[in-house]
Amino acid sequence: MAEKVLMKGNEALAEAAMRAGCRFFFGYPITPQTELAAYMSKRMPKVGGTYLQAESEVAAINMVYGAAAAGARAMTSSSSPGISLKGEGISYMAGADLPGVIINVQRGGPGLGGIQPSQADYWQATRALGHGDFRVVVYAPSTVQEMADYAFTAFDVADRYRTPVMILADGMLGQMMEPVVMPEPRDERIEKPWATTGHKHQRAHNVVNSLYLTADELERLNVERYERYAAIERDEQRAETFLVDDADVVVVAFGASARVARSAVVEARAKGVKAGLVRPVTLWPFPKDALEAAVPTARAFLSVEMNMGQMVDDVRLAVAGRRPVEFFGRTGGVIPTPVEVLARIEDLDERMKKGGE
């Protein structure tokens, strides 16, 4: 049996990425993800990889572009303002159909904000990570173990669909320490016939590019890309459900907020309130199927987030007006407490019962 080790979330993700075959890391320090880059700086040379602290976030993402174009598994990490600076390069990667992994350990905002945990980059990650017609697969871990596990998943999905993938964590998960079983290293040689690895007259010359001056050609490529996105929406949705089968109030929460919400659901059950939890693991594709399965028995939904209300839009779209959907959140780096969430669950449950009388 693999041994459990006590690790900080940022470091667990970094170690797992290297075990998943990442050999190129380009980043720039910013709290609260700096430990991830610092860990990479020590460990990457020991596994035959390259660590480079770029001169800026803009430079870092374009270095990922270059390494990915050559067929390598490459990664960058940052925190909220730094991800904004990487947006143009991420769009270029999507336009060139390049796989790569982007880590966002969120902090409070907007602007420089603060260094405390936040989930206020949900819209950015799922709606506006860069300009143009493209999507990015987004994973939201809620434990240090998942920080490690989804590093593997992120690289695999990125290569499978030739798309950038984001792991959207937050300062709480990045900084906290928990026991983790580290996945075993993999040394896979993934065939990438499209990569710019030198052809030696044995194949057609490969070109990696995101510039297409002919409108018809760009439209054709965008339509083809969205066919892949449709396959991702069909096959890659992930969610965890907890006590949902008979729940009157279904709480929807991701990442660190889901840990708080789960405690509140357990306490609500102890007090006789039928509460349950749907935890989206993929934020895009949003796990609509898990919400759809909860609609027939639920009387109401409560979206719990560390922001002013962002994922709640996707919950409402999934529920499609068939049940009430309410929101509770704390922002600016304030973490909601189980007591606060429990109070909202009880209030919502009471109002639903009165409304049904």
Automatic annotation (TrEMBL):
Keywords: Oxidoreductase. InterPro entries: 2-oxoacid_oxidoreductase, PFOR_II, Pyrv_Fd/Flavodoxin_OxRdtase_N, THDP-binding, Transketo_C/PFOR_II. Its EC number is 1.2.7.7. Residues 247-341 form the Pyruvate:ferredoxin oxidoreductase core domain. It is an enzyme of class 1 (oxidoreductase). Transmembrane segments: none annotated. CDD domains: TPP_PYR_PFOR_IOR-alpha_like (cd07034). The keyword Oxidoreductase applies. This is 3-methyl-2-oxobutanoate dehydrogenase subunit VorB. Residues 15-201 form the Pyruvate flavodoxin/ferredoxin oxidoreductase pyrimidine binding domain.
